[in-house]
Write a structure and sequence with these properties.
The chain is mainly α and 460 residues long. It folds into 3 domains: 153 residues, no CATH class; 42 residues; 235 residues, MetI-like (MetI-like fold). The chain is built from 17 helices and 2 strands. It has a two-stranded antiparallel sheet. Helix 9 packs across helix 11 and helix 16 packs antiparallel against helix 17. The longest helix has 41 residues.
Length: 460
């Protein structure tokens, strides 16, 4: 609550600096704002930035340094014998101190030295936080005063504000890029550790998936088999079934809503259809496991087929229902974006409405439709909950949709659940599977860009 109050106080101070900058700009112009280089609002924003940015930089740097300083203070309060422990043992004591300090562990159950170190940790952080707030307030007020003094009719406030906004956008873009690079490198490095233990050929082309390995020499367990072909096949099978459901229904519904439905019907039908995208995937999983799968099993038994209680067909059909809004909504927007002049020209040449849709509108909207379908494919490949509940965990290499299969994402979750040894091939296999998913998604994006570039000039 204290931090919230302080945050509100700083927001009020920044707002006050904005209005103070505006009033200062009006004052230096003698009431004739046309003599100013920039608009009055730019001067207010200029002063607000001088108030906020130095304070924000101080708080950010202080917040990064404060935990380290508090931790060193806590360590210095420990007995000498504990301070001289090896780094791995000392890190365990530090974790215990943090747990006691944050209330995760009851201090009554902790050692006396740990309890005193936790108290020192909390007191150091309390003093540091109070000092930070006071110093941040001083810096904010100093920035406000300095920014206000810089205001003059000749000040290029708009240029200064836009330069700051540009820098902020560059930083945001850089963070996004670095985050992506970090994700890729983390997958790549861990995957290389996995491929140092398992041959890439065995992983990519092996036909048997059984990642259970013995962690110790005296432990019962297999040597592990990491052939990922059954996972890839199961992923493709479920995705194919899902797209067979989602693409026709989604595309036809988009054509109907954009070309045939009245505006009143479209305004009510489209939001109802998009509700499917807001349903949690675990709800779809329950629907698949409790309704769809038993229904398919009953129908199969009625005609003499053996249908597993957990099948790729059930998971794929329900996943396709979930993906319908992705195809429908995006395709509807793309079709509506086709210029009306193309429709009018087709009608003027004597084409029927169906011929216009088939030979003019759909080819013109093809890049957007392909993008919608590829987005739906990526969504299907990355789905986990429905597969876990409806298709099972068995890594079966089969093309029969009536049998149980599993997918790459399900196995990633399975490999990383519970206490794991991150030096074992079993756990590192999850990163290799993640790298394969990343490459597949990248390939889909490349295909989508190729289609868009190939057909864009044709209909611009």
């Amino acid at each position: 609550m204290t931090n919230l109050i302080i945050g509100i106080a700083f927001l009020c101070l920044i707002s006050f600096s904005f209005f103070l900058g505006r009033s200062r700009a009006v004052a230096v112009s003698g009431g004739h704002t046309r003599h100013l280089h920039s608009r009055v609002g730019h001067y207010g924003t200029f002063v607000a930035l001088w108030c906020a940015l130095p304070c924000l930089v101080l708080v950010t740097v202080w917040s990064l340094v404060e935990p380290y300083v508090a931790q060193q203070a806590a360590i210095s309060s420990l007995p000498e014998r504990l301070q001289q422990l090896p780094a791995n043992e000392l890190s365990l004591i530090i974790n215990e101190i943090n747990n006691v300090a944050y209330g995760v562990v009851d201090s009554a159950n902790a050692d006396e030295s740990v309890r005193q170190a936790a108290e020192r940790y909390n007191s150091t952080r309390g003093i540091s936080s109070a000092a930070m707030m006071v110093l941040a307030l001083v810096v904010a007020i100093a920035g406000l005063y300095y920014g206000r003094r810089l205001i003059s009719p000749e000040l290029r406030a708009r240029n200064q504000v836009e330069r700051v906004i540009t820098i902020v956008m560059i930083l945001a873009s850089t963070i996004a890029i670095l985050t992506t690079v970090g994700i890729v490198l983390s997958l790549l490095f861990e995957s290389l550790r996995f491929f140092a233990q398992v041959s890439p050929l065995d992983f990519l082309f092996g036909l048997h998936w059984s990642p259970q390995t013995a962690l110790r020499e005296d432990q019962v367990g297999g040597s592990g088999s990491f052939g990922a072909i059954p996972l890839f096949a199961g992923t493709l099978l479920i995705t194919f079934i899902a797209m067979c459901v989602a693409v026709p229904i989604g595309l036809y519904s988009a054509i109907y809503m954009s070309e045939y439905a009245s505006p009143r019907l479209r305004a009510s039908a489209k939001p109802v259809l998009e509700i499917l995208a807001g349903v949690p995937t675990v709800v779809y999983g329950f629907f698949a496991a409790l309704t769809v799968a038993p229904t398919f099993r009953g129908w199969g038994e009625g005609i003499g087929l053996t249908v597993s209680s957990e099948s790729a067909l059930a998971a794929g059909v329900v996943m396709g229902i979930m993906i319908i809004p992705f195809v429908s909504s995006l395709s509807d927007d793309v079709i509506n974006a086709v210029p009306q002049s193309l429709r009018d020209g087709s009608f003027a040449l004597g084409a029927t409405k169906a011929e216009t849709i088939r030979q003019v509108i759909l080819p013109a909207a093809l890049p957007g439709v392909v993008g919608a379908i590829l987005l739906a494919v990526s969504r299907a490949i990355g789905e986990t909950m429905i597969v876990v509940m409806a298709a099972g965990l068995a890594a079966n290499l089969t093309a029969n949709p009536l049998q149980a299969v599993t997918t790459v994402t399900v196995q990633i979750v399975t490999l990383l659940v519970g206490d794991q040894e991150f030096d074992s091939a079993k756990t590192l296999a999850a990163f290799a599977l993640g790298l394969v998913l990343f490459l597949v998604t990248l390939a889909l994006n490349i295909v989508a860009l190729h289609v868009v570039r190939k057909y864009r000039e044709k209909y611009d």
